[in-house]
Design goal:
Helix content is 50%, strand content 18%. The chain has 496 residues and is α/β, with parallel strands linked by helices. The protein has 3 domains: 8-112, 2-Layer Sandwich (Nucleotidyltransferase, domain 5); 130-288, Nucleotidyltransferase, domain 5 (2-Layer Sandwich), CATH 3.30.420.150; 308-495, Hypothetical protein af1432. The strands form 3 sheets. A 6-stranded mixed sheet has the order 8-7-6-9-11-10, with helices on both faces. Strands 3-2-1-4-5 form a 5-stranded mixed sheet, with helices on both faces.
């Protein structure tokens, strides 16, 4: 449902360096921030060489989220999203953190991909600092750095690089010393990371450069403190580098705009930005006070206004891989009808219908690779595709639905689905199987021809036979009974 002017919208961004909370109200097509909180938790600093998060940093993150949860007040759960970025993408024990956090927060955490993070950052910048020019957006975070080119509200190029101030601090300034050699090493490594994007980005072109988030803001404030203006220039960043080297040690940093909690990571941020400005040859960068959490809220607002970028992603994949649109729509229509008949007794939320419909539309995408085991091909393509709007969790659920829409199901498969989405995902998988089977003949099945009733673990399908070919539908559903039994469901079918 659309967001009213009296409702609040909120986003929590679990970053590698800080965790942020933003609460906003709607004013027309814009959001006005009414409250915000930020705590430097430094999740990335808690990663060891095996990408295992320490218990101490896990506890710090949970304590922070507990405080944030207490500030949500009257924000409706449907108006809140919690996203996590690079560190939880990398951490081998991220599930431990997520399980504990989900017990505290009113909604589940979404781990988003690097490119989805970049898209949302661009959305936050575009809404907060509107421009009609083609722009280069830079966001230097604790665990990653996002590089985006876009125009108006549309990103054109999105990349998330594996360099952030937390990792660079540990690698080049871990002992606290700041010298010319460590600085140049940091700049060199950063240049190596981003040089591969240089020609493509330069060819696409941009008219202005914008930076977002805490690192860029601190650099802008430090340059202003030197009396060099309010914009970030290449000369200004070079001046910061020289001044930091002159300090000699992180503890000796004393610059206007550089807060005490940012001193430790400040040299790494300056080194990364210098590398970016040198590689992409721009000499001026404007700071924008809009980033990931704003992008998350504007993305929510778009969904509420019935433009969901996830549907755009589905449509692009359908076109790209030449999916039979008529069959996809037939299966999606049947899936929607079955869902509406049984979602109440199965306890399925409305978001489940959206997931089921998208899986139905994409279940044959793997035919572009080959007919044999195409369900496995479909799952592979969806797992590895860049799908704007989807969290990694939801994308994995989509993969599993598509993977098990046909053929063999064993006990391990059932456990895998339950682990990723509980009983609800199992029910969606079974509804998709029924929808595919019912449309096996690739002719229209009206919603009045297929009735599904549920009595505990007994599912009964009634098929209305209007044409001889509809009898095949009954036989196909009967054949599914064996696989439904693997899920503890007794499936029966009758015709009228």
């Amino acid at each position: 449902m659309p967001l009213s002017d009296t409702e609040k919208l909120a986003a929590i961004d679990i970053g590698s360096n800080s965790i942020h909370l933003a609460i906003a109200e709607r004013h027309g097509d814009q959001l006005r921030r009414i409250a915000s909180m930020s705590e430097k938790v430094q999740l990335a600093m808690g990663l060891d060489e095996c990408n295992h998060l320490s218990s101490a940093v896990l506890d710090r993150g949970i304590e922070c989220l507990t405080r944030f949860a207490g500030r949500l007040g009257d924000v409706n759960n449907s108006r809140l999203r919690v996203v996590a970025t690079n560190t939880l993408r990398r951490a081998v024990n991220s599930q431990e953190f997520i399980v504990r956090a989900n017990d505290i927060l009113p909604v589940h955490i979404e781990i988003i991909s690097g490119r989805e993070e970049a898209r949302l950052i661009y959305l936050g910048v575009s809404h907060t600092c509107p421009s009609h020019q083609q722009r280069f957006v830079v966001d230097i975070g604790g665990g990653s750095t996002e590089l985006i080119i876009g125009k108006n509200l549309n990103p054109i190029l999105t990349e998330s690089t594996q360099m952030g101030v937390a990792g660079f601090t540990q690698q080049f300034f871990g002992d606290g010393n700041i010298n010319a050699l460590s600085f140049e090493k940091a700049i060199y490594v950063a240049q190596k990371e981003i040089i591969k994007y240089g020609s493509h980005y330069k060819k696409t072109g941009f008219e202005e450069a914008v930076g977002s988030s805490g690192t860029i803001k601190t650099i802008q404030q430090a340059i202003a403190g030197f009396g060099l203006g309010d914009e970030i220039t290449l000369a200004g960043v070079e001046q910061l580098k020289s001044s930091l080297i002159a300090c000699g040690h992180i503890d000796a940093i004393d610059m206007a705009g550089v807060k005490s909690h940012r001193k430790g990571i400040f040299p790494a941020g300056v080194a990364i930005l210098l590398a970016i400005m040198r590689v992409f040859t721009f000499r001026l960068l404007r700071y924008c006070d809009g980033a990931l959490r704003e992008g998350v809220m504007y993305d929510m607002l778009s969904r509420m206004d019935f433009h969901d970028v996830r549907d755009d992603s589905v449509g692009m994949l359908i076109d790209r891989f030449g999916v039979d649109k008529k069959q996809a729509k037939r299966v999606a229509k049947t899936a929607g009808s079955l869902f509406n008949q049984v979602h109440k007794p199965l306890g399925l939320a409305i978001e489940g219908e959206y997931m089921l419909r998208r899986a139905a539309l994409l279940h044959e995408v793997g035919l572009a690779i080959g007919h044999s085991s195409y369900h496995k091909h479909s799952s592979y393509l969806l797992r590895h595709a860049d799908m704007a709007g989807f969290s990694r969790t939801d994308q994995e659920k989509l993969c599993l639905l598509v993977r098990y829409h046909r053929r063999t199901i064993n006990g391990d498969d059932c456990d895998r689905i339950i682990k990723n989405g509980g009983k609800s995902l199992v029910y969606l998988a079974l509804l998709l199987r029924l929808s595919v089977v019912a449309n096996h003949g690739r002719f229209e099945i009206s919603k009045h021809q297929l009735k599904l009733t549920i009595d505990n673990h007994h599912w009964h399908v009634t098929v209305k036979i209007d044409r001889p070919e509809h009898q095949a539908c009954v036989i196909d559903i009967q054949d599914e009974a064996h696989w439904f039994a693997k899920w503890g469901i007794c499936l029966t079918v009758s015709s009228v």
